Every structure is written in structure tokens, then in C-alpha cells.
Amino acid sequence: MVGLLNIVPRYLPRYGMAPEWARATRPLVLVYIGIAFAVALIFRADVDAQGGAYATGVLVLMSSAAIAVTLAMHKKRQNWQVFLIISAVFAYTNFAHSRGKSRWLSCATNRIARRTKCHSCFSVVPA
User: How many whole angstroms separate alpha carbon 25 and alpha carbon 45?
Assistant: First the structure.
């Protein structure tokens, strides 16, 4: 929200992409808070239900980045063994976190690929 509050009043009205009242930050804060609450209520957002999918997405992203760095260092013939160990730690952490939670893994990979919307990520997990 802080990023939006810095960008919108400064640049968007100048280029005709936002109304003039968007230059004032106080009404803009109220609009953003209203939108955030509306989205949370419409999708029945629950931190516990979405936290696992988010954590899995971060772990998948960090694991793939670690593997990419390992491959790049191997290609350059540099000290790639250290990065292989780091990649293995991320892969193990991802496996241990995601074991038995296939829905989180599918939601996380869908979010990273940006191909489809994963509507099951927005549902509440039964206790």
C-alpha cells in the first residue's frame, strides 16, 4: 500500500490516469483500505487458509532460483558445489513443508506460472 501511495498521487494524475482527487493522500488511503476490506469479505479471506499456499510459493520460487544459480555456476566452472548444497536445503525444506498439502503446491505453482487463477486458494480450510 505504501508503494501505491507514493506512485499514484505523484505520477498518475499528471498523465491523466487518475482523477485529481487522487493527488490527496488521505482520501486515497481510505479508498485502498475500502478495496482491501471488500476483497477480504468477498473472497472470505483467511490468513491461515492462504498462508500455507503463500509460504509454498515462496519456497518454490527460492528453490528454483537456487537451482538456476547452481546451474549457472556449474556452467562457468566455478565453485558450484556450495550452491548445490543450498539448493538441496531449499528443495528439502520445500518437500518437508509441502508433504501432504498438494493443494498448497498446486496453488503456489499456479501463482508463479501466472497461467491460471487458483480459486481453491481462496477457500477456507476446514479445521
Answer: 26
Q: Residue 76: is its pLDDT beyond 50?
A: yes
Instruction: Pick 2 or 127 by higher pLDDT.
Output: 2
Contact yes or no for 49/120 (Cβ under 8 A): no
Which of the four pLDDT bands, split at 50, 70 and 90, describes residue 71?
Answer: very high
For 19-33, the pLDDT digits (tens) are 777 777 788 888 888
Burial annotation 14-46 (CB, 10 A radius, 16+ → b, else e)? eeeebeeebeeeeebeeeeeeeeeeeeeeeeee
89 pLDDT more than 90 = yes
CA-based max dimension of the chain? 57
CB 14 within 8 A of CB 82: no
Q: With the C-alpha atoms ordered 34, 37, 39, 42, is the resulting torsion angle positive or negative?
A: negative
In whole angstroms, give the CA distance from residue 90 to residue 30.
Answer: 40
Residue 84: CB atoms within 10 A of its CB come to: 17
